Fold these 3 entries.
Entry 1:
Amino acid sequence: MPMTLKVYEVNRTGTVRVLREETEVTPFEKPEASHDFPACECPTCTEATS
């Protein structure tokens, strides 16, 4: 079952800025059981670790 995801940020004055427009994503069938966040795979973060 696909889901939609939209990434945005809100500053302390309440101004909203869209970082990534709404897009359809497919969730994992069975997510890993962990309390840690996975490593970010966005282009900015992957370029920084290269």
Entry 2:
Amino acid sequence: MGGVNQRQAVLGILRDAASPVSTAECAAKFSQAVGLGNEAEIVDQMSRKLPS
């Protein structure tokens, strides 16, 4: 994840969303965008790290 601009990835997800997204939904999309997959544990960890 070192080469990924995390802020830009999150802003891109929010910009492309058709409607408001929850922190968990954003975390799931983020983990897929950076190649982490969508494992439940990863999504849970990411949702705790993203500002709500």
Entry 3:
Amino acid sequence: MSESLLPKNIAELKAYSSAKSEKLTGTTWLNANESPYAKEFQLRLDNLNRYPEPQPENVINAYCNYAKLNAEQVLMTRGADEGIELLMRTYCESGKDSIALFAPTYGMYKVSADTQNIAINELSQSLLLEANVSEICDCVGDAKLVFVCNPNNPTGSLTPVSKIAALAKSLAGKAIVVVDEAYIEFCPEQSAVSLLQDFDNVAVLRTLSKAFALAGLRTGFLLANANLLAAVRKVIAPYPVSTAVAMIAEQALSSDAVTQMRRQVSILNGNKARLETLLNESPKVSQVLSGEGNFVTLQLRNKDDIDAAMQQGTIMRPFTLYGDDNWLRISIGNEQELEQVRLWLEQPE
């Protein structure tokens, strides 16, 4: 009975399959691009009878200090995923407008658009990286939002900030360039936040899930100029951030915590370099994609090797890319976790 009430776009929707949606068992978890570093926080829970601040001032100010922005340019969201949803709900008319994305890329852009009956202009990463800006803009067409995942998940590729700036300039008055910087802490010099001083049609998505080691908190930020965010503020839920989340996020953005995060990023980048060396030397691997972020994506000669890793208790993320189903993304873990990857790579065929 209820199925007959579903809109066609929801009935036909293919839900996003997250790394944690499958009921897997293992001992070494390298499938969700999480940080291996657990942290402890202090919570005060004697005020949960009151609604929280819609945009907690202390957290906003702390993120402003971190990102070198002002409070009107920062909106706190429930993960970067809510930022994606909010931009589509605010700037795209259902059944009329479209977005552009560059595949392969993060799957939630498509799911969010499909959910809201927004058309998708699916372009390629090679177009984004290799074509000139004029050609890219021609291909973007009438899309209201243009999503650039930078570094890109799952390939790790980077679009130069200068190219993003040129795209924003060419699309001024036509589209918003949305730069998803979920992994930017692993290459902070590549951030597009500096473009906000010059462009009204650039929005940047950020998260505390990766480098800040708070995937379980579901906290993100949407960064843009005041006029762009003013419309989004009309759409966001009245109390999107819980009191407990705000308390933890404020502590995670303290000066000492940011210093610790950067130290951990340095360690993880070093672990990544060592993993890339192991992968490039392994007979199990046919190619390794070079890029940024706390993960490495590779193609296996034999996809059955993934099952051998799972039997060992090492859980990584299989992918189908470029028409082949023998791709694997490995999150960067600590030294002990990467030792498990080495042992898997050295297993005899």
